[in-house]
Amino acid sequence: MPQIRSTHLVKDDIHLYLFTNEGETAASGALTLYGTDSVEIWDAWAGTMEPAVIRASTRDTVSVDFFLERRSSAIFCRV
Question: pTM for the complete prediction?
């Protein structure tokens, strides 16, 4: 079973969410984040950024797809 740990940081009005899969299997699904901005997924190890796939949005939130390999992490940035 995936074990996801998360941290939320606000820096200069930019919201950063770090998600880490501490489990032994891959994890996937949808994340719901507050705000309606677009979201990028940053891979700090690879030095890459890509737009997140938006599943749904409401007046106050946005839901995005995620996939994390075992023992990996990603930063979701509201831009």
Answer: 0.87
